[in-house]
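May I ask you to comment on the folded chain given beneath this request?
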Amino acid sequence: MVARTNETLVMAKDLTKVYKTGKVETAALRGVDLGVQAGEFTAVVGPSGSGKTTLLNLIGALDSATSGDLTVLGRDVNALSKRARADMRLHELGFVFQAYNLVSVLTAQENVEFVLELQGVGDERRKRAREVLEQLGLAKLAGRRPGELSGGEQQRVAVARAVASLPRLVLADEPTANLDGENAEMLLHLMRDLNEQRQITFIFSTHDPRVISHARRVVTLVDGRVTSDAEA
């Protein structure tokens, strides 16, 4: 098991997010306080609409908070330029989206290599991508495009892409939503191995008891507020 260090990767204080549609305002987050240290394997849980995805999007610098303070990897996210946010996402963060966000014209192998190529990784990127695909039982599907894969297979390719570059922090939004029991366990064991052996920190949003059972910390959101925060 990876021991937590004193390095704080995420620190949110009184974080709020309000979406506006015309004159209608919807509060997705209502004063969230959360700290995540390096080496954590944390599940953020709660009912639909509780703010889980919104919180991950803010931590991943994909969206901006309405108010409050947010520091990620030692940087004040609210003060970062668009270029600085993009650089942080490219080089230090990994993402697993509910919608997969795979590039339709690329094969599974090419999708996994894509971030590595953007990072400037040379010949090694093909080997690294292939190894992760093999770990997730996808080696035989490496030459297929997303449209030729099932939802569960696309989900595993998305996870492979997120972890192949060995980011410091992975944000995974419902990563097992379309997976059967065997493939979910395969994916979770890979993530635990990366957490323990490579010290990659993981934050999940999930409803899945399989993910929660692997988590070492469970943070519960209800109506945009943290209602419990406990070691698993």
Q: What stands out?
A: DSSP finds seven helices and ten strands in the chain. Helices lie at 52-59, 82-92, 108-118, 124-135, 151-164, 181-198, 209-214. The beta strands are 8-21, 24-37, 41-45, 67-72, 75-76, 93-96, 169-173, 201-206, 217-222, 225-231. Residues 27 and 132 are 38 Å apart (CA to CA).
